[in-house]
Amino acid sequence: MIDAIAQQPILAALIALVGLGILFGALLGFAAEKFKVEGDPIVEQIDELLPQTQCGQCGFPGCKPYAESIASGDAINKCPPGGQATINAIANLLDVPAPELDAEHGEEADVRTVAYIREDECIGCTKCIQACPVDAILGAAKLMHTVIADECTGCDLCVEPCPVDCIDMLPVEETIKEWHWPAPPTTADLIASDRRPAA
Amino acid sequence: MQEFAVILVSSILINNFVLVQFLGLCPFMGVSTKLESAIGMSAATTFVLTLTAMASYIVDVLVLMPLGLLYLRTIAFILVIAAVVQFTKMFIEKSSPLLYRVLGVFLPLITTNCAVLGVALQNASKDLNFMQSSLYGFGAGAGFSLVLIFFSAMRERLAAADIPAPFEGAAIAMITAGLMSLAFMGFSGLV
């Protein structure tokens, strides 16, 4: 059989290459089924790093859509609530240089804030309830609203729609539960260089 | 046993694919900016090199030689390489999504890495047997990993070093690669 085929060089070349092609094709088809990837695991990992305020300041309807957009190549510096810490963490995960926070999307808040509704001024219009991305405002039409402080992420989205301006963003008071060590200063010169004059 | 050691030393140091034979320079320059991705790339390339050395030997002996088709070696080996790389890509995508993302475009580019085809063709022309071929492929991968990891470690330090402006970036990388190549010339005549 092999000798017979080898007598015909063109036929032999054709059979050999087509045969190899079919063999590898079948192998890859099998591997594609066996190693099928469900969803995109990288999106989950980025989503975990984002602060989950669902504030929409990045221009996406929430943290998950922004994570998907980052995974497909969007800039990673559009998240003001996360601030530089989140940018650094994502840059580290994706192995890219960490940019500064994009000022276009807002500034990083120095202190964590929480929304507070001055309840005697509230007219019960429910506009802030619709704006809240995490359902942290409780109330009904023509009834007073209030903020569930534990749920509020301090994203500022409810301040703008309020027709009577009765929502304040108050800094969260530090309690024993929330206090943590401040991060060490990042400006320390870890690498000596001729460019900087010695202090 | 000694014969295997000779093959390994020869393929890792004396005939190093990157610095002595100048094959596979694209990933050598492209994936060497960060040590972590360099290690990932090294592992993937070593895996592919070993596997293609074996697979191309089998194709060469079982298909091409009996049919007298030695002139089809190049195209048949490219077919083998493409299939193995695609398989590796699927495997990494499933087992390590992060490595998959870090390697990015360089993973499919292993297909066009001339070191891979170089190993297959050199194995065929040197008439090595199966064990020797796989070892030669593995040695080529180990040599590639060695210099890639050294080079990326140096480039990480270079990124933080105070380099004169005209030499910054790719220029200093090229000079570094050239000096490394000179150093590897010193291994010639070792065996």
Q: What does the model show?
A:
The complex is a heterodimer of chains A (199) and B (191). By secondary structure, chain A is mostly helical. Chain A has six helices and four strands, in the order H-H-H-H-H-E-H-E-E-E. In chain A, the strands form two sheets. In chain A, strands 1-4 form a two-stranded antiparallel sheet. In chain A, a hairpin with a 7-residue loop joins strand 2 and strand 3. The longest helix of chain A is centred in the N-terminal third of the chain and has 26 residues. Chain A starts with a helix and ends in a 28-residue tail after the last strand. The mean pLDDT of chain A is 81. Chain B has 191 residues and is mostly helical. Chain B has one domain. Chain B is 75% helix and 0% strand. At the A-B interface, helix 1, helix 2 and helix 3 of A face helix 3, helix 4 and helix 5 of B.
Q: How much is the average pLDDT of chain A?
A: 81
**Residue share in helix of chain B:** over 70%
The major β-sheet of chain B equals:
none
* SSE sequence of chain A, one letter per element: HHHHHEHEEE
How are helices and strands ordered from N to C of chain B?
Answer: HHHHHHHHH
Percent strand of chain B equals: under 5%
Give a short account of the largest sheet of chain A. Answer: 2 strands, antiparallel
Find the structural class of chain B using helix and strand composition.
Answer: mainly alpha
Report the sheet-strand fraction of chain A: 5-15%
Strand order of the largest sheet of chain A: 1-4
Name of the CATH class of the domain at 41-105 in chain A: Mainly Alpha
Distance between the termini of chain B: 15 Å
**Spatial extent as radius of gyration of chain A:** 28 Å
Mean pLDDT of chain B: 87
- Based on the coordinates given, report the CATH architecture of the domain at 41-105 in chain A: Orthogonal Bundle
Report, as a whole number of angstroms, the end-to-end distance of chain A: 85 Å
Instruction: Name the overall outline of chain B.
Output: globular
The number of strands of chain B is 0
CATH homologous superfamily (4th level) name of the domain at 41-105 in chain A: Electron transport complex subunit B, putative Fe-S cluster
What are the low-pLDDT stretches of chain B, counting only 5+ consecutive residues below 50?
none
Of all chain pairs, the largest interface belongs to:
A-B, 31 and 29 residues
